[in-house]
From TrEMBL:
Domain HTH merR-type: 1-70
PANTHER family: HTH-TYPE TRANSCRIPTIONAL REGULATOR ADHR (PTHR30204:SF98), REDOX-CYCLING DRUG-SENSING TRANSCRIPTIONAL ACTIVATOR SOXR (PTHR30204)
Keywords: DNA-binding
Phylogenetic classification of the source organism: Bacteria, Bacillati, Actinomycetota, Actinomycetes, Propionibacteriales
Protein name: MerR family transcriptional regulator
GO terms assigned for molecular function: DNA binding; DNA-binding transcription factor activity
Superkingdom of this protein's organism: Bacteria
Pfam families: MerR_1
Keyword DNA-binding (UniProt): yes
């Protein structure tokens, strides 16, 4: 497909597609003539992954490039790819969070850590098991699922947690 069709099917402007190619996020298409490039379904798929990481993952371009590079590197183990994804989308450490809470006069937040850890351990086991559905040994499929599960899993968990907080708040404090 030509760039205009790729843009139409992906919902990403041709200018953005060219930018992603220049930045190394998206491989270039195949030359099909003077000043003409053809793109395939793999380009469309990659473009969708890039947009998810940018839009829902709220990651900067450089971070997306780093993650996509890890997914494409056949020499990397799946565990290493997961590590790259986790490091590329950093969050504060538990001690940092607890120190900040204590500095604000809420040191008792630490009392919830064991419950948070238990819930997180269960969730992590579910997420790792999800990687094998459907069962495959295809490293590229598993690597992409690891990235999607980590980045979109964070967004999904936050969305579900916020919904649960609204429900709990309405139950405890009323809806008005």
């Amino acid at each position: 497909m030509r760039i205009n069709e790729l843009a139409e099917r992906s919902g990403v402007s041709a200018a953005s597609i060219k930018y992603y190619v220049r930045e190394g996020l998206l491989p270039g298409g195949e030359r099909s003539g003077y000043n003409q490039v053809t793109y395939g379904e793999s380009h469309l798929h990659r473009l969708r992954l890039i947009r998810v990481l940018l839009d829902l993952g709220h990651l900067p371009i450089a971070t997306v490039k780093h993650i996509v590079g890890a997914v494409e590197d056949p020499a990397r183990s799946l565990h290493s790819t997961l590590g790259t994804t986790r490091q590329a989308a950093p969050v504060a450490s538990v001690p940092e969070v607890l120190a900040a809470a204590a500095a604000l006069g809420h040191a008792d937040l630490a009392e919830m850590v064991a419950d948070y850890r238990a819930a997180a351990d269960r969730l992590a086991r579910l997420e790792v098991a999800w990687l094998d559905r459907p069962a495959t040994d295809d490293r590229d499929v598993l690597a992409e699922r690891a990235v999607v599960g980590t980045i979109l899993g964070d967004a999904l968990l936050t969305a579900i947690r916020r919904e649960a907080q609204r429900t709990a708040s309405a139950s405890r404090f009323g809806t008005t």
